[in-house]
Amino acid sequence: MNLPELFYQSALTSVPGVGGVLIRQLMSYCGSASEVFRSSVARLVKIPGIGDVTARAILHPEVLRETERVQQRCEKLGVQQLFYTDSQYPARLKALYDAPPMLYWQGPADLNTDRTIGIVGTRQATDYGRRITEELVQNLQSYRPIVISGLAYGIDIVAHRASLVSGLPTIGVMASGLDIIYPHVHAKTGQEMLRMGGLLTENRPGVKPDPRLFPARNRIIAGLSDVVIVVEAAAKGGALITAEYANNYHREVFAVPGHLNQTFSQGCNKLIRENKAQIYTRPEDIVEALNWDQTAGKTAPAEKTLLALEFTEEESQILALFRQQADWHIDELSWRSQVPVSKLSSLLLNLEFKGIIRSLPGKKFQLN
To answer: Which candidate, 143, 141, 137, 139, places its Cα nearest to that of 156?
Structure first.
């Protein structure tokens, strides 16, 4: 059966017990998702981390049958599937160790836009928290960031609605399939977001919201954001989990200080006290931290050079990684890009000839 590569990429995410790490391992050793399913059990068990049970689970006929059902649902709903090797897959996520191997996406927004901001907080938002959120979004309007949140009650939905009012694209990251907007009362706002922002999840259509899926959703919000702002939060909760992920991913984190006796100020004050967040006092704090004033309307000389040249899809994928990290060892670059070392060496040589990168001692490479 001659099926598109995306079908087999989707199939990899349908195998029970096979997550992102093993999927990358399989892709690295086999070269493509379709080759994984053309392999035998004997070949698969030679791959580190793949035992006999996992190998047989991968090749079980039900995997492809379930994949066909998923593909049909996505086509019916107008849902786009983005595998982590896809050029439209968010570059901010791709370099993370726990990046979702597959994303499900609806919307016109650019997932690789220059500026993103995550706004999160308690579901029990106060008038103070709602006002701060609305003013923050309104005052960042001229910088045209994409506003990212979780479509939940409280601060999340205030951030999304304030973005729509200000004409800013906003993305809702969901802990369910895209056909199940949770909570349902936010369905209308979710539909409005599809006009100029979008909805995103790592869960296939039909997956219902579940408590264990929300922390995983929070890591995507953090990973997509250049800065995460916690407006209001209790001593424990999803907003603090998002802030923790953001710190682990080396994102900027800000917290809005609150009244000492207010429950939903405890989390923000704790983040500031423990130096896990900078104190937010005005929108300019964000602008200055991210150098948005200095970069507005400007293109760095190196970027102009890159824009003037034409690259293959694989070369563009490699260059996206170099923009995220100053230098790479060829083995790590191969693992991150899922391009075999033999092929990667040729790609790197071509980029050297174009004057884009240079080789360093110890099989390392650096962007010029």
So the answer is: 137
Q: Is there a domain that residue 83 lies in?
A: no
**Band of residue 330 on the pLDDT scale cut at 50, 70, 90:** confident
What pTM, to 2 d.p., does this model score? 0.80
Among 235, 119, 218, which Cα is nearest to 166's?
A: 119
Most distant CA pair in the chain, distance: 65
Does residue 136 come out as left (phi exceeding 0), alpha (psi in the -120 to 50 range) or beta?
alpha
pLDDT tens profile 31-79: 889 999 999 999 999 998 899 999 999 999 999 999 999 999 999 999 9
Helices 341-353, 313-324: inter-axial angle, 10-degree rounding:
80
C-beta of residue 7 within 8 angstroms of C-beta of residue 71: yes
Q: What range defines the domain where residue 321 resides?
A: 301-367
Mark whether 164 and 254 lie in a shared domain.
yes
pLDDT, position 306: 47
Residue type (1 letter), 30: C
Last-in-domain residue among 236, 263, 295: 295
Domain C-terminal end among 251, 272, 295: 295
| Residue 111 within a domain | no
